[in-house]
Amino acid sequence: MTRFRIATTIHQGKDSLAHLAEIGATDVLVVTDPFLATTPVMDSVRKYLAGARLTVFSEVEPDPTVTQISRGVEAYLNADPDTVVALGGGSALDTAKAICKVAQQHNDAPAHGLVAIPSTSGSGSEVTSFAVVTSEHPQRKVALVSDDMAPAMAILDPVVTRTLPPSLTGDTGMDAVTHALEAYVCTARNDFSDAFAEKACQLIFQNLETAVHDGQDLAARERMHNASTMAAMAFENSGLGITHSLAHALGGAFHKPHGRLNAVLLPVVMEFNAGPVTYGPHGISEVADRYAHIAHLLGLQAATRRNLALALCAEVRRLRTAIGIPDSLTGLGIDRHELAAAIPDLAATAMQDTCTPFNPVQPSQEHLAELLRKAS
Ligand SMILES: [Fe+2]
Q1: CA nearest 169: which of 217, 233, 113?
Q2: Which of 162, 274, 285, 367 ranks highest by number of CB atoms within 10 Å?
Q3: Ligand 1 centroid to residue 202 C-alpha, Å
């Protein structure tokens, strides 16, 4: 038995920001970062909310801490809004979700709820029911999870992503493809999550390179924006896998971008999940067969089903190289000796990650250590 839930109304397409004017908001708290607060996108938000009293909280930083969220809660209490608008990447959206959750726990939730306007095509936070928050003492990332944290509305306007630089477009795009491919093979996958994961994969492999190399191509930006949200709708209802477990551990220790870590780890984990000796009805493991199906959807060709699965791993590596992401953890700037010394602890941390039980092949701690060595 599985449950598939979509709690967020989605508006998508060029100029979909205009839907802000239809909410009926009278008092709005905008949660964003200092950069976006000064861009034309913010001017558009002001234009569409011209009839409302606007308070802008623009102190969002990457990897929001409890202290930063407390400041946001203070801004919320002062503004007493009926609508919260989150404008930015995963950090801005997660900050706004955490602020709204605190307000809700004090019976002071905004009447029109949270409107998420993502400025990156990757995290999918605009449709998920959790927020990642960094606690400072001790420093660690904590996931707040609650059904009622999913935004009421998501506005996927490609214009908002047009100024995203190529490296961030690439990193976040590789996060999205990792969401889709992990959701597609994880233990809680189902027909509904499969549908969104398959479509997300097609859109990402068709459009990510263009979005990276020509950020002004709004058609590619729009497809990437939709794909990222679809991939999140898949993993919100199915789960992820050990690419994310390992990326979470490495991100905590070496502070490298989440999407880049996923990009390096993903094909290594896919080869582990596909399994060299597990045979199913088609002569290969069920997971490898699912990779082969995605490869088929992408138009890849190979003489055997197993080679088709391997062709998908090769395609992930090709895409990664085409958008300028290195092929190893040391290539990302992680010191080889520091990494080697940290591998036992990283593997232990990844073993405890909430994503690990959803991986299609249950790894041992030594398997995780070996995967880190392979990706080094
Ligand atoms: Fe991710």
Answers
A1: 217
A2: 274
A3: 18
